Fold this sequence. Notes:
By secondary structure, this protein is mainly alpha-helical. It has helices at residues 2-12, 24-29, 33-40, 42-59, 62-90, 92-116, 124-135, 140-151, 156-187, 192-210, 236-269, 277-294, 304-323, 328-356, 362-390, 397-419. Helix 4 runs parallel beside helix 6 and helix 6 (92-116) runs antiparallel to helix 10. It starts with a helix and ends in a 9-residue tail after the last helix. Mean pLDDT is 81; it is low at 1-19, 228-237 and 421-428.
Amino acid sequence: MPSQTSATHDSTATSSPARGRFRQLPVLAGRTFLPLGLIARLPLAMLTVGALTLITAATDSYAAGGFAAGAVGIGSALGAPVLGYLADHYGQRLVLIASAALNAAAIGALLLAGSLAGPGTGLFPTLVTAFLMGATCPQIGPLARVRWMALTRRRPADLDTALSYESTADEATFVLGPALVGLLASLLAPWLPLALAALLTVIFVSAFAMHPTERAVVPLRRRAPDQPTRSRRVSGLRAWGPVALPVLGMLMMGTFFGSTQTALAAFAGGFGAATSAGLLYAVMGISSALAALSVAYWPQRISHPLRWLTSAGGMSAAAILLLHATDIPYMLIALLVLGVPVGPTMVSIFSLGSMVAPGHLVGTVMTLLASGIVAGTSIGASLAGSMADGNGPSAFVVPVAAAVVLFILGTISMALLRSSQGYGYRHG
């Protein structure tokens, strides 16, 4: 069982390069944890595009579909930290099973609303159910990271490996999810992707909730009053002040993602290939995912703020290539290059968030970071969309600006590390 293997791992196993760092992950968590976590997070990547596809087909209105997709995003951004807070207090198992059931019900409600919707009908039921669908979506990625943080206590190299894997898993699902929605909707029916998402949620989220690794994370209600936490407990602004910087970083990451997606749609549309924008974006996703895996092999002496600073600097430089793309081949090369610093930047911010999170609210912080990406994606898409309407290529200014802000935030994190105790929390 994973609890037994992780207990023996600290005394008998090592993370030697000869064995390969990623081979340690099944030793820590058990062989079923990785595939369960990968499949269980897939529905989250399907919901926004699924709602857009379903409601657009039902109402024959892209605006209505866009509103529904936006409602899903807003619900997810607001609901994720609530689910994380509840998981911190009552345990992941209870919260995940409850959210899986509620999310499947919300998906069913949206399918019903979609079947009743049509051109000219009111959108209120659709928007409410879409919001609830987003708000109740189980937060597998953030809560999986919380489990890794518990399983790799006092083993920072293994934690870096786990967080690298998690970022790659996120990238993979957010490329695969929309592609699966498009395939099923175009070949079979617009409602089928959401129905599949509900089925996957009930089966795989429940299995993830029951996995033995859940026992590694002790909720607050079961902790003894004197039980030490992974980091020093600090109250008020002193506890949450250091968390703000990684959250802002993830907000900018989301802004970068959303604006890049929208700007690519406008760019591809100029060549009569608007439907291929997702394939262009996937090129960046592939290089980003592969580069995220490399972080596991970076020397431990390179601090997380320095990793953030250097990776974001690479993003800022590479993003400029987007402004000079004049054809599809050039854009493919630019996106492939741009993806290389994107993955490490995201891993570094998640790692820094794990360091500064108050030990009793790790799940809350991890879900806040995920919410930052969701909220930022909506902001970036809106900003780039407004610019694309006037002049398509100018929309790429938004991802460039987001990358520069990420670099500035990385610089601030380095300054805090050197001049204050702002990043004084450590594992253990």
